[in-house]
Amino acid sequence: MRLSVQGIVKRFGATTALGGVDLDLAEGEFLTILGPSGSGKTTLLKVVAGFEAPDAGRVRLGEEDVTEVSPRQRDVGMVFQNYALFPHLTVAQNVAFPLEMRRRPKPEIAKRVTEALALVELGALSGRLPRQLSGGQQQRVALARAVVFGPRLLLLDEPFGALDRKLREGLQLEVRRLQRRLGLTTLFITHDQEEALVMSDRIAVMNHGRLDQVGAPAEVYARPATRFVADFLGESNLLEGEARGDAVAVPGFGPVPVACPPGPATLLLRPEALRLDAKAAGLDCRATGRVVETIFLGLSAKLRIRVEGGPEVLARVPLRPSTPPPAGEGATVALGFAAEDVHVVPRG
Ligand SMILES: Nc1ncnc2c1ncn2[C@@H]1O[C@H](COP(=O)(O)OP(=O)(O)OP(=O)(O)O)[C@@H](O)[C@H]1O
């Protein structure tokens, strides 16, 4: 179902946790709120779930204004980081709980629990207690419990936070498949930018209680709307320069031919767009630099380079068996980039 959040303000004493948040989710959309610790992500989720009342603004589900509606009546499924399963209930009893609360008939409960457990492939463990399950299995039970009653909306607050990397990646794909299959509108919270890029239809980047940008992952990555977004999402070189209309003068690199209103300017250059094969065609800007550090990452290497007469930059170069190893510390390198790979970060 559609979710619409308008003008949400939430204060805790002198702290403004949410400073006017507007957000719309289309039916079946998976939207991730991405932001650093303390930026207001959980508070927004609590307002949507009904656990916190906003000081201003409205929350709508479909056509219904639910701002004053109790959490129970909102029919929202939720999964949190620390699996809040009932320890004394079996897997099946945990999943049945939301249906018992809604006083559904016994045969319907049995049928739905079986279906929900099959969805997360835990049918065989239905008689176990939570403490007899792994962390990943417990989160899948929590997920089954969140969707078993056919919620209007699914809220996920860092559900993989406590899991190791491999398990997390498996569950990310599983959640996404399940969400697509059920066509569930989903609001997901994470501070992990990679997770946000992998999972989302759209990402909303939160900065001090406000959304700096809402857009598709590729859009937010390539064309960040603010300096904060450019810095927070992915690795970045933020080159400071002086714009003269048709070019921005960047120390060490010279004029970068991009359109930008006169004045101080910030250019975003992703590490993978910085080329160390200086003979490559189509490079508009070139510089010389000294390698400060080389980090081997398997498929690629990351180099920190001090540009002569300019800033320190980060380059990421792909590694293939046929290419020579990347330049080591202390080496002098020629580097460059194409103007079309540069994004002018809007001011303000
Ligand atoms: N119940 C509360 N009482 C007072 N201040 C609160 C309360 N809940 C949240 N805050 C404050 O509101 C701000 C936003 O907190 P919130 O938990 O929403 O951030 P978050 O982005 O979810 O952070 P994290 O990723 O660490 O969970 C913080 O400054 C926090 O200290």
From TrEMBL:
Gene3D superfamilies: P-loop containing nucleotide triphosphate hydrolases (3.40.50.300). The keyword ATP-binding applies. It holds the Pfam family ABC_tran. Residues 3-233 form the ABC transporter domain. Keywords: ATP-binding, Nucleotide-binding, Transport. SMART domains: AAA (SM00382). One of its GO terms (molecular function) is ATP binding. It comes from the Bacteria. InterPro entries: AAA+_ATPase, ABC_SmlMolc_Importer, ABC_transporter-like_ATP-bd, ABC_transporter-like_CS, Mo/tungstate-bd_C_term_dom, P-loop_NTPase, Transp-assoc_OB_typ2. PANTHER family: SPERMIDINE/PUTRESCINE IMPORT ATP-BINDING PROTEIN POTA (PTHR42781), SPERMIDINE_PUTRESCINE IMPORT ATP-BINDING PROTEIN POTA (PTHR42781:SF4). This is ABC transporter ATP-binding protein.
